Amino acid sequence: MAKIKLTKNELKKKKDALKMYQRYLPTLQLKKQQLQVEVRSVQTRLEQLEARKATLEKEYDIWIAVFSEQQMARTLKGEPLLRISSLKTDTGNIAGVAIPIFQGVDFERQVYDLYTAPPWVDSALILMEQLLRTQMELEVVSKQRDLLAHELRITTQRVNLFEKVKIPETIADIRRIRIYLGDQQTAQVVRGKIAKRKVEGAER
What we know:
alpha+beta
């Protein structure tokens, strides 16, 4: 334990510190609860997206073989029929944490020969868009989860520091100073009485 000054000024400092800890602790506890709720919510969304991705990948497995065999995934110039042109995100704020919000994906489709391309190409491209959109959202939501989980760890550490270290230590310090000052006051009273008796005895 760090050495403390056993003075009235130190007692006031410790009391002020205790008030501050007790004032901020409920705010930290509330933030911790909010973050726990949000982390669970984001985790649920992640699981939904992962399940959707797995389903789409299973469906897409059928098309992959056909695309590969017939080179249908590319134009005659060798360019891919589908590419992501932009990922649209915004920034949100949860319990003081800035997180990315998924808003959508824009795709760019290359023109292909409608006469030579088989009719299932359109269906395959739609499925590919769904899969890529799900993958992009999954990445954004994963980032959300990482940011919120990091803030939750920090907030939990602060709550534990206040609850288990700072507040108990400060209460113990206040008690120690009070006992010391009380003892000093008692000793002063006793010394005063002894001095008074000596003075009275000398006057007789």
